[in-house]
Amino acid sequence: MQLSETRYGKGKDLTPSTPGLRPAALRKHAKFGSCSSQEAREPRIIDLNAMDYSNFTLYVDESGDHSLESINPEYPLFVLAFCVVAKQDYRTRIAPEMTGFKHRWFGHEAVILHAHEIRKEQGEFGFLFDRAARGCFQDDLTVLMDRLPYVLIAGAIDKVRLNRRYAIPDNPYSIAMRFCLERAFSFLREQGEASGLTHVLVESRGRKEDAALELVFRRICDGTNTFGCRLPFEVVFVDKKQNLPGLQLADLVCHPIGRHLLKPEQKNRAYEVLKKKFPRGSREKSEGHGLKTFP
């Protein structure tokens, strides 16, 4: 399916009759060259209610690293996960409920939920060395992850198998990002939300890494994808210190997916919750649809 020519082709005048603020939609309009040089120099405003944004946001995180030269034999995977969240659900459910969880356990919302620190009982999570406290904390966190409304899309790359299969393998990050963006687009299209711009929020890793990631992202969205069309996504890099609940949600889902793929026979309460969050479409199983493993 081709995307709307209104946004990604010929374009139309975005100036509304009711003044508002100047959003990213105007920058996109200018970027695709549908404004004359004179129009581009003139200040313009558009109605907030008329902005062409989708009703979803994607929050992204990863587990493992994407190096193919030095592979950890204990965790030879790279897992990229997208939490697809309706903005209404984020405002009314996810943000307040994650804040409530923090208030219960820490007395304030400034703490950042970080899966690695939770597993290693580090920093704010040092109290988890106590077995009883850890059990209660994990129970409460599992209930929270089950209750929150989000759709999970993930791509997992087995780096050992990738090296064996291809003489010159592509970067695992590129492969996983393409899988996830394509499936996210399919999901949004099913929801009737593929014509508006959807923001993809990623934790910033530094100027060099962010630039490399953005290059991969833009190549995929500019047409290097299964659909052969421009995908309506825009990446946003976020400082971890901003303490966004959506990015913490994405951080919490990655490692359980990797553990399940490495040891599917091992009990994994977190994954039992997460597997219900994958979109299945017409399929009975999430593998290959919401969860893509490669090769």
UniProtKB/TrEMBL annotation:
Residues 1-22 are annotated as: Disordered. It comes from the Bacteria. It holds the Pfam family DUF3800. InterPro entries: DUF3800 (IPR024524). This is DUF3800 domain-containing protein. It comes from Candidatus Kentrum sp. DK.
